[in-house]
Amino acid sequence: MIISEKIISNISVLTPEGSLDAATVPQLKNFTAKSEVTPTLVLNLSGVDFLDSSGLGAIVGMARNKRESGGDVVLACMNDKVRKVFEITQVARLFHIFDDLEAAAGYAEKQQKSL
Amino acid sequence: MNTTIILPAEMRYLRLATITAWTAAEIFTDTLEIKEGVHDFCHAFELSVCETFSNSVRYADPANEEKNVTICFSSCNDSLTVSVSDTNPPFDPVTSLPDINSYPEKGFGLFMIHQLMDEVTYTREKGGNLITMTKSAGKHEK
């Protein structure tokens, strides 16, 4: 799995690419543990072509950690397969989900300014 | 269709297991000349095999260097069945959804399989676990 990071609207945008599953989740966890991201971040899922329950759990855990410290995780650009996993588990209702990356970053910036 | 693949119980083989599941489902729908709902049908097998294979790897005996996971596909009329077997100790097949508001990181796998498949059975066989999952290609969305 390749994970890249950039800043949009003063917000860290993490972009994992490939399959986010039990085999690759440790890479995402290592990356987020080592990188200095903004309190609220956008997880750009446009490059994730497959998500399993381990990947879903990792995203839920990331959101819990961020929210416990006053930040948040905003989700963007998930494909139909990934969205289905969020919907059948009802995890979708925990998140603000955007189809557009700029809109997600804009929302996250407003959230961060209100901290 | 009657196809079996035996993989080492190692997480690095997970993608091979899931690609095989998607491809088996795609071949099955091609054979039946099914056009509608193929993507959802293939995804159901891809995800269900992913969840069961990764569970088998997670709970495999690390002392057993010969540990494998067997994935078997078989068809009957418009239904495709995949069975995933291992040599692991028994487990409690909890199928309820965890409390979402507690931000759980685990416990979604079997629940998802039951949501995606028409029929799921768990049995102990030959000293291991056998999960059998069946879905009809005639039911486009569950």
3D structure, described in words:
The complex is a heterodimer of chains A (115) and B (142). Chain A has one domain: 2-Layer Sandwich (Transcription Regulator spoIIAA). Helix content of chain A is 42%, strand content 29%. Chain A has helices at 25-34, 53-68, 80-88, 101-113, and strands at residues 2-8, 11-20, 40-44, 48-51, 72-76, 97-98. In chain A, strands 1, 2, 3, 4, 5 and 6 form a 6-stranded mixed beta sheet that branches. In chain A, strand 2 (11-20), helix 1 (25-34) and strand 3 (40-44) form a beta-alpha-beta unit. The longest helix of chain A is centred in the middle third of the chain and has 16 residues, at 53-68. Chain B has 142 residues and is of the alpha+beta class. Chain B has a single domain (2-136), classed as Histidine kinase-like ATPase, C-terminal domain (Heat Shock Protein 90, 2-Layer Sandwich). Helix content of chain B is 33%, strand content 27%. Chain B is built from 3 helices and 5 strands. A 5-stranded antiparallel beta sheet of chain B has the order 1-2-3-5-4, covered by helices on one side. In chain B, a hairpin with a 2-residue loop joins strand 2 (68-76) and strand 3 (79-85). Chain B is globular and about 45 Å long. In chain B, 34% of the residues are buried. The mean pLDDT of chain B is 94. The chains are: A alpha/beta (115), B alpha+beta (142). Chain A binds chain B through residues 19, 21-23, 50, 52-54, 56-58, 60-61, 63-64, 80-81, 84-85, 88-91, 93-94, and chain B through 11-12, 14-15, 18, 39-40, 43, 46-47, 50-51, 54, 57-58, 97, 100, 103-106, 108-109, 111-112, 115-116.
